[in-house]
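Quiz preparation item.
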């Protein structure tokens, strides 16, 4: 670590940052994702001296194959998402690759939300 530094990308969730509808997340899931967010921030502070950057992804809804098998969402379900769609797995992967790359060399201790803007909309 002292010679080369590095990058760690953890996975958190929107459920680890804010309360969620019980149909979308349970307390134990939210607590574990909140712990991942806290670990990310603390590790970023502790490991910066070794040149190690630590960040986390916090996806909202992601259109995974399992989600695609569910019945279609009711009309208006995407209204709470400004971009009006769920993220695709590749969107999350793209952010992970960016954070692990030298293009993100000055980003550390951040919980990067990827949710089509739903976290900035009031309820």
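Solution:
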């Amino acid at each position: 670590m002292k010679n080369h530094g590095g990058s760690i990308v953890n996975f958190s969730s929107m459920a680890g940052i804010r309360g969620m509808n019980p149909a979308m997340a349970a307390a134990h899931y939210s607590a574990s994702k909140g712990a991942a967010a806290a670990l990310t921030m603390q590790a970023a502070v502790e490991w910066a001296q070794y040149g190690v950057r630590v960040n986390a992804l916090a996806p909202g809804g992601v259109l995974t194959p399992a989600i695609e098998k569910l019945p279609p969402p009711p009309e208006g379900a995407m209204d709470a998402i400004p971009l009006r769609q769920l993220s695709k797995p590749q969107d999350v992967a793209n952010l992970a690759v960016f954070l692990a790359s030298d293009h993100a060399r000055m980003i550390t201790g951040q919980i990067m939300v990827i949710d089509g803007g739903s976290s900035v909309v009031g309820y």
